[in-house]
């Protein structure tokens, strides 16, 4: 017969070799490796001040015959600390889920039991297959002022602990973040960005239970966010973006009437539309060109910008001896 | 039935529902503020548990999504008519108890009472659109205020305001259901409900 025993970290452990007498000649192994006789008191195995490294399979063999007389798995661990429990409704009004974890591992198996009480009624919390530390409850009533009381008890071989959460129906409503956030520049609008998103797919009935949204955005080069709250719709046009600057944008959601804001959505990046830069020649090229033709590239005295006849785009050059001033001005903007 | 289905009636219903939803939202915000004030001024613990109070309409409902439009309207109307009476009683008790000593609380109570009355009127209009008309209030005298000690009255008031806050949320949801085009969200009474 194989046995299992659990002991606390720091405990002294004595293992008997089954029904063998104290003075019987035995050999103990740990995970298949012989244990030195210094750990034996007669046929008893003595492990002092055990730690996690002592966990394993211990076997006791009769001295001469090497018959296996006793076997046990030793698990060294700790009793559970108070578990951390969280309940949330991301699919209101269908129901809510509770999830839990231990703040520190116990290193031995733990068993969790959850009870959900609403008034006088005990409700069933259906355990999820994955993740294992979660279960969900269907609302049987809506709009109740009676609080829910959820108690989670964790038990292992070394002890037990529990925690209780009490909350009302509205307080735990927290949607998942909006999905499919997209931000695009608006053609010919250097200060606009068009942002759109979708309701979280876990929110079952946005028509009856509409969400409102919070959008935040900032240029990458700044730390300060701009915020916009939107009571309906799943799109918004930012109209005060800095020209040419890359932006980071996120959206959060909340039920129109109850609960708390979701976490922020995945961040998206976008840069407002900018006019394509006009390519400029060096002065030497200007001189070469003007020697071949006459006045077609000579700007009128009042013109400070490139000739309208100049071609803008790859491979083309424009002639403009004041272009350097313009370039310098743009350079300041992009610093 | 014909009136309920006409485009004009549909538009009117939608308009009443939209305004009702906004009114319910404002009412809820004001009731939540009033609750904070009430708890503070009455020296109560905000987390105090108040068991179901007799005569206070309970917002909690099972199978809410299966209700017909008419059921929603009737239940809402019954609730707000009851709250109208309860808030009037609270206001009267408040005046007797404190007189002008706490005018702010009195004004807040009066403001919510006005909104409750306005909402009840909205619901009556919606029921009229259903060719059903709202149930009459005549012949149903307001239940007298129970004889309670001062502390019990305070707790009762807390219960009233808490349920009203829940009703305000429920009402907004109910009205949104009424604006949905699906048959389940429609307001037409079922055969079983026809008088």
Layout of helices and strands:
The complex is a heterodimer of chains A (335) and B (195).
Chain A: E1 2-8, E2 13-15, E3 26-30, E4 33-34, E5 40-41, E6 44-47, E7 56-62, E8 68-77, E9 84-88, E10 95-101, E11 111-118, E12 121-123, E13 126-127, E14 134-138, E15 141-142, E16 148-156, E17 159-167, E18 179-186, E19 189-198, E20 211-219, E21 226-230, E22 235-238, E23 247-255, E24 268-270, H1 283-292, H2 323-334
Parallel strand pairs in A: 1-8
Antiparallel strand pairs in A: 2-6, 3-4, 3-7, 5-6, 7-8, 9-10, 10-14, 11-12, 11-16, 13-14, 16-17, 18-19, 19-22, 20-21, 20-23, 23-24
Chain B: H1 2-5, H2 7-41, E1 61-62, H3 69-98, H4 103-129, H5 150-179
Helix pairs in contact in B: 2-4, 2-5, 3-4, 3-5
Query: What separation lies between the terminal Cα atoms of chain B?
Result: 13 Å
Largest interface: A-B, 17 and 22 residues
The helicity of chain B comes to 55-70%
Residues in β-strands, percent of chain B: under 5%
Topology of chain B as a string of helices (H) and strands (E): HHEHHH
CATH C-level category of chain B: Mainly Alpha
Radius of gyration of chain A: 36 Å
Account of the protein in words:
Mean pLDDT of chain A is 86; it is low at 288-324 and 328-332. Chain A is elongated and about 95 Å long. Chain A has helices at 283-292, 323-334; strands at residues 2-8, 13-15, 26-30, 33-34, 40-41, 44-47, 56-62, 68-77, 84-88, 95-101, 111-118, 121-123, 126-127, 134-138, 141-142, 148-156, 159-167, 179-186, 189-198, 211-219, 226-230, 235-238, 247-255, 268-270. A 5-stranded mixed β-sheet of chain A has the order 1-8-7-3-4, with no helix packed on it. Chain A has a 4-stranded antiparallel β-sheet with strand order 9-10-14-13, with no helix packed on it. Chain A has 3 domains: 3-77, Sandwich (Immunoglobulin-like), CATH 2.60.40; 84-167, Immunoglobulins (Immunoglobulin-like, Sandwich), CATH 2.60.40.10; 179-270, Immunoglobulins (Immunoglobulin-like). Chain A is mainly beta and 335 residues long. With 195 residues, chain B is mainly alpha-helical. Chain B has one domain (12-136, 164-177): Growth Hormone, Chain: A (Up-down Bundle), CATH 1.20.1250. Chain B is 65% helix and 1% strand. Chain B is built from 5 helices and 1 strand, in the order H-H-E-H-H-H. Chain B has helices at 2-5, 7-41, 69-98, 103-129, 150-179, and one strand at 61-62. In chain B, helix 3 (69-98) packs antiparallel against helix 4. Chain B starts with a helix and ends in a 16-residue tail after the last helix.
């Amino acid at each position: 017969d194989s046995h299992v025993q659990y002991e606390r970290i720091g405990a002294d452990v004595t293992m008997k070799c089954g029904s063998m007498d104290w003075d019987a000649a035995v050999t103990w192994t740990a995970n298949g490796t012989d244990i030195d006789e210094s750990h034996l008191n007669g046929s008893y195995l003595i492990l002092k001040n055990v730690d996690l490294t002592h966990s394993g399979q211990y076997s006791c063999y009769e001295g001469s015959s090497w018959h296996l007389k006793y076997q046990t798995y030793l698990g060294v661990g700790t009793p559970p600390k108070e578990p951390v429990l969280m309940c949330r409704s991301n699919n209101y009004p269908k129901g809510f889920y509770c999830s839990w974890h231990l703040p520190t591992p116990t290193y031995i198996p733990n068993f969790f039991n959850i009870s959900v009480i609403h008034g006088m009624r005990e409700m069933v919390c259906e355990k999820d297959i994955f993740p294992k530390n979660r279960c969900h409850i269907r609302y049987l009533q809506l709009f109740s002022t009676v609080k829910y009381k959820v108690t989670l008890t964790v038990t292992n071989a070394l002890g037990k602990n529990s925690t209780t959460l009490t909350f009302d129906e509205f307080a735990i409503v927290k949607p998942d973040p909006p999905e499919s956030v997209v931000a695009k520049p608006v053609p010919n609008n250097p200060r606009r960005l068009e942002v759109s998103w979708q309701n979280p797919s876990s929110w079952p009935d946005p028509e009856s239970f509409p969400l409102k949204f919070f959008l935040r955005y900032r240029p990458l080069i700044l730390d300060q966010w701009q915020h916009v709250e939107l009571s309906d719709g799943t799109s918004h046009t930012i109209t005060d973006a800095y020209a040419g600057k890359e932006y980071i944008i996120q959206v959060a959601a909340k039920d129109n009437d109850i609960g708390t804001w979701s976490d922020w959505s995945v961040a998206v990046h976008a840069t407002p539309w900018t006019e394509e830069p006009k390519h400029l020649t060096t002065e030497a090229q200007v001189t070469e060109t003007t020697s071949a033709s006459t006045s077609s590239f000579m700007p009128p005295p009042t013109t400070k910008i490139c000739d309208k006849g100049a071609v803008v785009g790859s491979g083309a050059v424009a002639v403009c001896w004041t272009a350097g001033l313009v370039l310098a001005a743009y350079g300041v903007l992009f610093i | 039935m014909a009136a309920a289905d006409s485009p004009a009636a549909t538009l009117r219903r939608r308009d009443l529902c939209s305004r009702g939803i906004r009114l319910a939202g404002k009412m809820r915000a004001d009731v939540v503020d009033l609750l904070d004030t009430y708890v503070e001024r009455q020296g109560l613990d905000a987390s105090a548990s108040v068991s179901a109070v007799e005569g206070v309409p309970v917002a909690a409902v099972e199978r809410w999504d299966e209700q017909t439009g008419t059921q929603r309207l009737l239940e809402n109307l019954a609730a707000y008519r009851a709250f109208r009476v309860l808030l009037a009683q609270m206001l009267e008790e408040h005046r007797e108890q404190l007189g002008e000593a706490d005018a702010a609380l009195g004004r807040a109570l009066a403001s919510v009472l006005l909104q409750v009355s306005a909402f009840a009127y909205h619901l009556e209009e919606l029921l009229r659109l259903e060719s059903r008309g709202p149930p009459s209030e005549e012949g149903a005298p307001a239940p007298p205020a129970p004889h309670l000690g001062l502390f019990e009255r305070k707790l009762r008031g807390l219960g009233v305001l808490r349920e009203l806050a829940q009703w305000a949320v429920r009402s907004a949801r109910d009205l949104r259901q009424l604006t949905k085009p699906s048959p389940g969200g429609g307001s037409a009474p079922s055969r079983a409900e026809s008088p």
